[in-house]
Design a protein that fits this description.
By secondary structure, the protein is α+β, with helices and mostly antiparallel strands. It has six helices and nine strands. Strand 6 and strand 7 form a beta hairpin. The mean pLDDT is 85.
């Protein structure tokens, strides 16, 4: 586990970065009520994300983002973090909205496919994604679900369906809503 001084230094640098950047570092979408999905409500760009605004992104051979584990995780490595994968996927979608380029569309669909292929499906909870990195500060050591990852996965899958018409994306997005259902009574 990293030493206490290393963690303090990391947190001080993070505080300085967070304190000195402009307050609203993502633009807000102008239109969020259109019948078709366009920009996500936070308009993230690939350039901002690659510059380290939120994470230190790396990429696998398929173009799927990986990020380093947290400073307080003993085993330091690159991980697939569904929240960050969704964040970068939405930035790619924004790139495609501007460019209309087939290559950008394919890069986005690679992210949609990642969410489709890496979902866990259960009868009771529907489709969801687990984050497989410990969060010692919350005493979480096993893979854990996240509402934030859930929302990013749903957003990506719905946009994948909109682009392709492939029912698999719509079905998985719909099934991913199940975990939010509260039984009546």
């Amino acid at each position: 586990m990293p030493g206490k001084l290393e963690k303090i230094w990391f947190m001080l640098k993070k505080f300085k970065r967070d304190f000195t950047r402009k307050p609203l570092f993502y633009a807000l979408a102008e239109e969020v009520h259109a019948p078709e999905l366009g920009e996500y409500y936070f308009v993230m760009t690939e350039a901002e994300l690659r510059a380290g605004v939120s994470q230190n992104f790396h990429f696998d051979a398929e173009g799927i983002p990986l990020i380093p584990t947290y400073i307080d995780v003993e085993e330091r490595k690159l991980i697939y973090y569904p929240i960050s994968i969704g964040q970068y996927g939405l930035a790619i979608f924004h790139t495609w909205l501007k460019s209309g380029a087939a290559a950008d569309r394919q890069r986005f669909l690679a992210i949609a496919d990642w969410f489709y292929e890496n979902r866990i499906s259960e009868e009771r909870r529907g489709d969801f994604w687990l984050t497989d990195v410990p969060k010692p500060e919350y005493r979480i050591f096993d893979p854990w679900p996240s509402a934030f990852a859930q929302s990013r996965g749903i957003s990506i899958l719905l946009r994948g369906y909109q682009l392709t018409g492939e029912e698999k994306y719509l079905s998985a997005a719909t099934n991913a809503l199940k975990i939010f259902e509260v039984p009546a009574g």
